[in-house]
Amino acid sequence: MVTAEQVVSMIQAGIPDAEVKVNDLTGGGDHFEVTVVSNEFANRSLVQQHQLVYKAVQSAMSSEAIHALALKTYTPETWDSVSQRA
Questions:
Q1: Residues 38, 40, 66, CA angle at the centre, nearest 5°?
Q2: Per-residue confidence (pLDDT) for residue 86, from 0 to 100
Q3: SS (H, E, C) the chain
Q4: Burial class (CB in 10 A: 0-12, 13-18, 19+), 28
Q5: What confidence score (pLDDT) does residue 53 get?
Q6: What CATH number corresponds to the domain at position 59?
Q7: How far apart are CA 74 and CA 70, in angstroms?
């Protein structure tokens, strides 16, 4: 089992400037919804953005501590435009 705080720490270790929001979808510590905002995503495709996040949590994924990760990734600029619409 992994806590939401541990997921945040793993992602921020791999993407130091990341702002991370994590929701534990089941309460069981293995299915998470994650929103990551980072300058590292600039000029990268959505697939490349997700690969950066998956690399940061790879050890928890490979040990099956995390079974599912629903990702939303944004640059700060795209996050500003998305969050203003919400």
A1: 70
A2: 60
A3: CCCHHHHHHHHHHHCCCCEEEEEECCCCCCEEEEEEECHHHCCCCHHHHHHHHHHHCHHHHHCCCCCEEEEEEECHHHHHHHHHHC
A4: exposed
A5: 97
A6: 3.30.300.90
A7: 14
- Give the range of the structural domain holding residue 40, as residue numbers without chain letter: 4-68+76-85
Domain count, the chain: 1
Q: Report the predicted TM-score, pTM, of the whole model to 2 decimal places.
A: 0.92
What pLDDT digit, counting tens, does each position of 21-48 carry?
999 998 888 899 999 999 999 999 999 9
Two tokens at 28? 């069981």
Q: Residue 1: what pLDDT?
A: 84
